Every structure is written in structure tokens, then in C-alpha cells.
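sorry for the late reply, my laptop died twice this morning and i had to redo everyting from scratch. anyway the thing you sent over, i finally got around to it. pasting the sequence first so we're on the same page, its 278 residues, then the predicted structure underneath. double check i copied it right bc i was rushing
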Amino acid sequence: MKKKLIYSLLVLFGIAFVSCEPIEDRDSIGNSITAEQLNISATPLMLNGKRSNKIVLENHSPVLSFWDFGTGNTRKQSDSILMVIPGEHEIMFTGYNPDGSAITKALNVTVDELTFAVPPQYGLLCGSGTKTWTWRTTSSTFGNGGYLSDKGPAWWVLKVGDLGSVAPAGEGLGASFTLTLSGSKMIKNRADGTSATGKFELDLTKKLNQAGSTNLWSMGKLKTTVTVPCGILTNQGKKEVLEYDIVQLEENKLVLACPEPGAGAWGSCWFWVFVNRN
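ok and here's the structure:
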């Protein structure tokens, strides 16, 4: 009986000892790497001996991916993207280590030709990579008109010399804004020498038809993080506008629009008319 009791106590002691052993961490995160250790590439697809605008992105590193190629981004480890203009381009890669730290690296690619079709609006808006737009000086350049009907200022109309009565300081005559595809960069250049820097995005899925018609009124939206010159709704407490309908876009003409809140067809809409300064 004594032997059985001693044996039972030894078993219990053994179980208690085992239960106190530290638990092995089999799910520990991996080691972080530096930007210099990244194994990534951005390679143009070669067709007929030329570097096309289709770029193959590959990440073979133990980090999560974020690729910024100017006109868009992707989080895939491997992906194919289209550049929208020929020439030199910078693709910015951000990798996220298992511990959450971020590392970045820029990759440069050269595009010889637009082998794969892309929307022409990118080239019209940004030229060969950078384009500056300034106020039209030959006729009306700012004002309101009918939403989904007019194609520019039609009711209350201002020429560039009259903008001083409504525009913020430095955003009338002599003001401009510059769009750069690389990094989707936007700079508002005020006439007094100051500037504001932000980002822009071109969304060509947001098309609108003319009121009562199947004809297009706008071809998409220009979304920004800083306003264009005098980018305000005059009747709404000068509220800043950061999203514009693109009503017209030509090599030397850009008409942007924004309806007042709640406006329906033929309601009050504000228009900005710019020309290419380059």
C-alpha cells in the first residue's frame, strides 16, 4: 500500500514538473531585412526588340509588398502593370517586415513605346510626364452654369482679371498647377511665389452623361489632395473642392467642374478653365 502511495506521488510530481516546462514558441516572427537585402525587380516586357509599357513586378523577399507606379499601386507579390507614357519611370517599392517595420526602394524602368493601349487622357493631362496648367486669359475662365448641361461658365462668368474678387490670395492671374505622373504629384503654384504640394488621381470610371442624353458630359474625375487655383465653391462658404469632373481635356484646354451640394441636372455647377502653359 505504501509503495502504491509513493508511486502515485511520484507520477503527480512528474506531471507537475512537465507542466512547468516553458512552452516552445514555434510561431516566432522571422528576422527583418533591410532595403539593401531586398530581392525585387521591375522589368519591361520586350516585344520586337523594344521595351514595352507592360512592366513585370516581382518580389522574392520575405516582406509584404506595396508598389507605387505613379498612376496606381498594387499590393501583390508579383504583378503586371501598364505605364501610360514612354520614357523614364520610377517605381517605388515599400516592403513590410514581419515586425511591422517598413523599408523602401526605388526601381527605374525605361519604356520605349506604348505597345499596349492606355487611356490617352494621361498623356493629355500630364504631357510627357509633367505638365503645367494655368488660367485661360482669352475669355471666361471661372464661374457657374448648368450641371450636366453646360460645358463651361455660362451664368455668372469671370475673366482672369476679375478673379481677384473671389480667389484666395495669389490664386488669380498668374497662378497655375503642375501635374507629374511620377509619384502622382501635384503642385499648386500661386502668383505670389508660394505653393502647395499634394497628390492627384485620375479616375476614368466616373463618367457622366449629359442631362437627357446618352452623350458624355464628363470623361472621368480628377481627385486631388490640394485644390486647383481658386478651387472653391463660392456660394458654399468658399468650401474647398478636391474632386472635379473632367468636362473637357485637350492638348491645350482643360475644363473642370463641380456641382453644388444636392444639385441635379441643370442645377448650379462651378467651372474652371485652364490652358497648357508649357
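DSSP finds two helices and 21 strands in the chain.
thats about all i looked at so far, will dig more tmrw
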